[in-house]
Structures are given as C-alpha cells and as structure tokens.
Amino acid sequence: MLGRIGRMATRKGRLAAGIALVTLVVFALAGGGVKDRLSVGGFVDPAAESNVAAQQLETRFGTAPPNYVLVATAQDGDVVDAANTESGLELVKRLQATDGVLDVTSAWTLGSFPEGTRNPLRSIDGHRAVIALRLGRDEDEQRATAHRLARYSGRQGRFDVVATGPAEVSAEAATQAEKDLLRAELIAAPLTLIGLLLVFRGWRAALIPLAVAVFAVLGTFAALTVIATLTTVSVFALNLTTALGLGLAIDYSLLIVSRFREERAAGHEVDSAVHRTVQTAGRTVLFSAATVALSMLALLVFPVAYLRSFAFAGVAVVSIAGVAAVLIVPMLLVRFGHRIGFEAAPDDGKFWGRQARRVMRHPWLWLLGPGAVLVAVGLPFRAVDPGRIDDRVLPVDAPARAGADQLRHDFYFVEFNPISVYTPWIDPTDDAAVMDFETRLLLLPNVFRVDSVRGFAGVGLTIEPTDYNTRFRAGPRDGTWFNVTSSVGPDTHDAEDLVADIRALDSRVMVTGTTAVVADTVDVVVDRIPLALGIVALTTLVLLFLMTGSVVVPVKALLLTLLSLTATFGALVWVFQEGHLAGLFDITPTGRIDVFTPILMFCVAFGLSMDYEVFLLARIKECYDLSGDNVDSVAEGLARTGRVVTAAAGLLAVVFIAIATSGVTIVKMFGVGLALAVLVDAFIVRATLVPAFMRLAGRANWWAPRPLRRFHLRWGVWESEPVDLRTIAPVGSEKEPSQAAPESPGS
Amino acid sequence: MTNRSEVVARLAEVDLFNRCTKGDLRIVARHAQRATIPAGTAVVSQGAAGDAFFLLLSGHATVERDGVAVAELGPGDFFGELALLDPAPRAATVTVTVSSEVAVLGARMFKVLLRELPALSAGMLASLAHRARASGAVGHE
After folding, report:
1. How many Cβ pairs closer than 8 A exist between chain A and B?
2. I want to staple A30 with a disulfide (CB 3.0 to 4.6 A). Which of A11, A149, A216, A222 is the partner?
3. Host H or E run for residue A131
4. Domain membership flag for residue B85
5. How high is the ipTM of this complex?
6. Which residues of A touch B106 (CB under 8 A)?
C-alpha cells in the first residue's frame, strides 16, 4: 500500500493535491463549528451514587446544593437592617426572574432565627450577605446562566456584589483558560516558526509540519463534531487536539523529511527518494501512530465524559496526523523536494553518535546516574493526593477567587458545602425515625449541625423548623433527606471520611454534595487507572514486539517511558501539591492535585514519548538487522534520530512553556508538566538511559522465544526495504525503468 | 502467480530451499518482492554496490565478468548474494535474455532470514560450496 502511495505522489501529484484540498475543505466545513457542539461539563460519573442522589433530590424534592453564590457587601450598615434588607430582597427578586435560575436562598429569606443563633448567610461582622443560587441541571446550562448573571456583579442597589461558587469558578476558569491559550499561541507561534525554519533548514520544508497540523486539527474537529452527535464530548478535547496535533505533525514531518534528505544525499533522485522515504519512514510513522492511537483507547475505561473525550480526540488526531503525514508530505516533497536541499547539517548525527558511544563506554554509570536522578525526582509522586479543582485554580485577583476568599474569611465557611443525605426509606412524618437517624448523624465525627424536617439540630442545640425545613418533605413515598453541616472544609480528608461514615450507617442511604461528588469522581478515576495502564502497557508491548521481534526491548521501552513520566509527575506533586516554588510559579497550592490533569498529560506525554521510542528503535533495528552489531546499531540509531527527536522535543517544549504562562493552575500544570516530560524524554531517556540499557543487555535486547521470533518473521511489522528495481534499466535503452516495478507478495 | 501460496509452491521447487519447511517458505514468500524484468535488462551491474539478492523464478539470464560470459542462469538459480555476504562491488553483470520473473530480497531481509532460518543458510552454504567446487576454487576437501 505504501508503495502505491509513493507512486501516486510521484506520478499523480495533481490528482493527489486535488483530493487533499477537497478533503481539507470538507474537514473545515464539518468541523468549523465544533466548539458550539461540545460540553463544558462531563466531569462526573453519571452512575456515581452522589450523582444519582443529586438527581433524586432534584426530582423528588426540587432541591439540590447551590452551585452559584453572590457575596453582597453593604456599602453602609448591617446587611439585615431595614434599608439593606429592602435592597437585598429586590435583588433576590430580580435573580429569581432570571432564566436558568432554579432556586435562590439568601440572608434575607431564611426566616427568623432564635436568640443566640446566627444567620449562616450573614457574615460574622454583619457587613456581607450571601445569596446562594441553584442554576440549571447540566454544566452547559449552568455556564450559560452564569454568563447571564454576570450583569449582577458590581454595584447593585446598596451592595457591591461579587460572584463565586462552583458554576462561576468553572465558567471563569474556562474563559480564563481560553484567553491564556490564545495568548500562549500568539507567543508560541512566532517562536515555533523560527524553530521550524532552523530545524527544517528552509521555509518550504518548515511549512510541511504546519500543513500536516492543519489537516490533523481540522480533521479531528470534524470527527469530534460527528462524535458529539452520539455522546457527550468535552470542549477541553480541543486543547488536546491542538497540542497533540501540532506535536505529532512536527514529529512525523521531521522524520519523513530527514529520511528524504538521507535518500537524496545517498544519490537518489527526488521521485525515487520520495518512494523510498514513504516505504521506510512512512511505515514507521503509521506504526507509531497506531501504537499511540490504540494506547489512547484505554481512556475509554473511565466512565467520565471528560476523559473519554480525550480518547476520541486523541485517537482521531493521532490517526489523522499519521495518515496526513504519509499522504501529504510525499506530495509536497515531490513538488518542492528539489528545492528543499539535502546537504547534511553541520555535525549532522555526529554529536548524537558520539554521545551514544560515550554512554556505552560506561553504561552502568550512565544508567544508574540519570536513572537515580529520575527516581529521586519521581519520589514525591508516592504522596500524590488526587482531588478536584476549586476556586484556587484561579489567579488571586480573579473575581470568583476573591468572592470565595471573602466566604472563607468573613463567614462560617462550612455552611456553604453541606453534605446532603437522602434516606428514601424514612417517612418524614415518622418523627421517631427521623430523630433516630438525625441522632446517628450527629454522633459522627466532625458533624456540626443536621438540618431536617424536624428543624435544626446541633450538639446541645435544637431549633424548631421554619419554612426552610419544608424542603425535606415531598410525596408520601419519597422518603426524606438531611442536610449535614460539617466542621471541616469540603476538600479535606476528614470531610471525605465523614461521607464514608454516613454511607456506612445504612446501605440504603445516598449521599451527595461537593465532598461526595469529589470523592466519588476521584474514586472512580483512581480505581480504573490500573486497568487503563494495563491496557496501555499490553498494547505497547504487543505493538513494539510486532515491530522489533523482541520481548526485551518493548519492556525496556515501557519501563523507561514510565520512569520519565513518574519523574515528571513527581516534580508536579512537589510544586503544585506540596507548594515548593509556589511563589516562582505564582500558584496557590491546595495540598491536592487535580485528578484529571495528570491523566490528560499522560496521554500527550506518552504519545510523544512512544513516537520518539519508535523512531529510535526502528533505526536501531534496521542497523542491527544489517550488521548484527549491537553497539554500532545503537550508536547509528541515535545518530540518525537524535537530531529529529531533540529538535521536535525542543519545539514542543516552547509551545508547552507558552501554555504554562496561563493564570489557571491546572493549565499551568499541564504546560509545565509536558515541557518537562518531553525534555526529560529527549535529553535524558533517549540520550543516556536507552543506549546504556541496550549496551548492557547486548544481544539479549533482541531475544524472544523461537516461536515468537518465527511469528514476528511471518506476521510482524517490517519497515519496507526499498530495493531499487526502478533503476534497473534495460541494456542499451533509455526506457523508463518502471516496467520493472516490483510487486510484493508480502504485506 | 498472484498469491503467496503460489510463491511458496514455486520456492519449494528451488534447490536453495530444499531443506526449508513450508513455514520457512511462507516466511521467505512474505518478504520477497517479485518483479518482471524485460528481456535485455541488466539486473545487476559489475562494480555497482549490492543491495539485494535475486532468485530467478522464470526466464533466462547470462552472467558476464569483464565482458566475458561466464555462466548461464535458469529458473531456480540465484545471484547477488556475494556482495551482501562479503560487502564489495558486484563481481559480475547479470542480464536477462528473455522476459524473466525474479524474486528479490533486500540486503537487510536477506541477512535476517539467513540468521533466523538455519535451513536457508544451510542451503546457501551448500550452493556456494557447489559453485566453488564447480569453478575449481576449492582444490580439495
């Protein structure tokens, strides 16, 4: 097939260009409006108990925890004095009339409070009041409503109003991330272009990866548009698409152009060089793309739309980038190949060849030294504490962050993150049963107060029910629910333990609220990580075996890639979770790390790392098959690919560092982590650990049981060996040698 | 000849492969490229670099060294192995005299198969020994 592609590129260039152009237009038309079809949500498992409980409370009782908060600061006097109350009630009225607002609770509408008790929605000093809103059911509706409510921020009557709460934090984070990514692209684009000009040595060659990237990104947008009609796809899949699309386009183009230059330097004319390039580097690119795409399918094991979206985007962008590289780059090389030049760059390959031999002279030193450094950097990863984001992902001066800080400092913060406990078997009219369960809840550690149909109960405190408590009662068969206010913050392990304790009270109980949702999300993601990693490992091992015919080299590849990623994650935990260098990175550590971001990073970093591994192994194997000399093969493989890998990694690091300038912590972590991952992979793993390991393993690198070796010979993936039958000319004839074109009976 | 089992059948008739199992032949067939060479084509030229091994499946070829015909080749004969086993320029020019079909193994695959298929390397050694004896290069055993 690759032979046919090569021939099509060389003989039917205009037709191929026409098809490519039409395809690009179709991609652009189909994928142009992709953003409007994607969801800003998808962060929870629909089957999680907390989600089911929230739906039950919504359906049966018409209630749910508030997800949008306005903090109103009185310009003068106490928030509950007559003038401020009138102004506050007027504001509440307008909020209730806003489309998408389901429920409004405020300091002025909670009813009266007995002597000695306090209004939880009034600040400790009395100058601030909280208006808690519940916005539409799904995250997309919530975000749209949050945008509509933006006009209530600022001066409102006698108050200065600031918006915060989960829906607002999510909306602000998404808006800020979009702005930051646009700025990052503006920073990275000229730098990347300069880098491409230097690496590809000429503007024509430098445009090749951009052409592939445009195909990959637009093609993926089109694919995501189609997939979004079938299932929920997160809008964040677009970030993965652009990052991975550009990265892979650079990788694949660089590999193909480098091989083309080698073939030209070996004396082949443009057409012949293109033909040979497609059959060698083209096959490597397709194989690498298949490895990465299949690995990314592992993300489908997570029952969370956000992560599954990365699988859709990842598989699409990798596949399209691979196919586009093999179809488009040869076409461009035929068109511009004679102007691209093939003279070797100064010191081309020599540095990396020397480096490989330097490492292989002292392999233990180079294996244990850098290996120990990576292990040490990775150690903090043992203490990783996965959680979810809160307002602290935003910069300190972001409005939602400022509002949340006011809640923390000026209110009894624990009031804003209650745990909702649904007890479908308890009849709300059965006072004894309600009181019994209420007492059991109160006896649990860190329970501050329990609100129920019976009123408000705390340690040594009982308050009769007000109008507020009617929300705990619905139809005769709906049961009742309890609102548990804990004395610990919602993002703490104590709060998570409390959720677990409540669930342990009765197998029929259903718990929801911020803490339960976070705990359920983290649990389901963490529980599935071993399965996902197992699928990635198995896929990688099988595919690398099919490429190399060895069972040792794939294991080595996997271990070294995991070591490099562990070091990266260790560094991220050290900075973003534990807070070291927090000032330098301008972040507010929360003591936890967002559970989703490392998984997204793993996808991109693993994909790029496997690319580099496949490029390197393909050349080492090619040399080893020819010479049977392990040391020469490793040195030659590194010499031939070292420049490609380091150049690609360097270019990508620029892009990722630009992303790391974002003010949103998770975006910053994504950028820092990926920049670190590609640099560690290119400069430490490929330049030191791989040659050191392969030197020590010697011939054992290529070991496999005899049946597997024969299986590989028969069914393995072999880079085509372009025997140049086309140069065999009939004696004494100028006839086109294509008559002698080979027909391979093999695959 | 359109499918691999036919290639396997053709290879089985060649002396070089007479020690090989059917599984060996399937492996060789998987990696061999086939080409039809027009009459009068020099498949390998003396002095050129060698990058492939050729097996004549049908047709006829002559071997010339320094312009002097030194051998005739028919179906089942092979050539091109010397420059791969002992890297040096091609020792002779091989020209097909009628339209001929060849199976071609690139240098890399040729070496891999010799390493991995002992029956093939034994066949190759036997053929080379036979040629050496026939050419008088080996005086005694």
Report:
1. 91
2. A222
3. strand A128-135
4. yes
5. 0.87
6. 721-723
Residue found by looking up tokens 């049908």 in the block: B58
Instruction: Report if residue B140 sits inside a domain.
Output: no
| Pairing label, strands A593-594, A386-387 | parallel
Say what angle helices A166-200 and A237-265 make with each other, to 10 degrees: 10
Contacts of A722 in chain B (CB under 8 A): 106
The rounded distance, in Å, linking the Cα atoms of A531 and A519 is 19
Q: What is the CATH number of the domain that holds B17?
A: 2.60.120.10
Domain count, chain B: 1
pLDDT (0 to 100) of residue A395? 83
What is the span of the domain harbouring residue B15? 4-135
For the stretch B69-122, pLDDT in tens is 888 999 888 888 877 787 778 888 999 999 998 888 888 889 999 999 999 999
- Among B34, B51, B108, the residue with its CB nearest the CB of A745 is B34
pLDDT (tens digit per residue) in A184-206: 878 888 888 888 888 777 788 88
Contact list, B53 vs chain A (CB under 8 Å): none
- Tell me how crowded residue A119 is: count the other CB atoms within 10 A of its CB: 19
B34 in any annotated domain: yes
DSSP 3-state assignment of A690?
helix
| Side-chain half-sphere exposure of A138, counting CA atoms within 13 A | 12
Q: Which of B31, B43, B45 should be substituted to probe chain A, the one whose Cβ sees the most A Cβ atoms within 10 Å?
A: B31
Residues in chain B: 141
The 8-class DSSP code of residue B35 comes to E
Task: Give the residue from chain A lying closest to B41, CA to CA.
Answer: A730
pLDDT of the residue at A731: 44
Q: What is the dihedral of CA A76, A77, A79, A80, to 10 degrees?
A: -140
Please indicate whether, in this complex, the C-beta atoms of A743 and B33 are within 8 angstroms of each other: yes
**A740 to chain B: which residues are within 8 Å by CB?**
35-38, 41
Residue A401 CA to residue A588 CA, distance in Å, equals 11
Coil, helix or strand for A97?
Answer: coil
The answer to whether the predicted template modeling score (pTM) of the entire model surpasses 0.80 is yes
B33: which chain A residues are within 8 Å (Cβ-Cβ)?
A: 723, 725, 742-746
Please tell me the predicted confidence (pLDDT) of residue A240: 79
Q: Is A745–B7 a contact, with Cβ atoms under 8 angstroms apart?
A: yes
Torsion of CA A616, A617, A618, A622, to 10 degrees: 110
- The residues with which B103 forms a beta bridge, in sequence order, are B34, B55
How distant is the Cα of B75 from the closest Cα of chain A, in angstroms?
A: 18
Which of A621, A713, A718, A724 should be substituted to probe chain B, the one whose Cβ sees the most B Cβ atoms within 10 Å? A713
Q: What is the pLDDT of residue A36?
A: 82
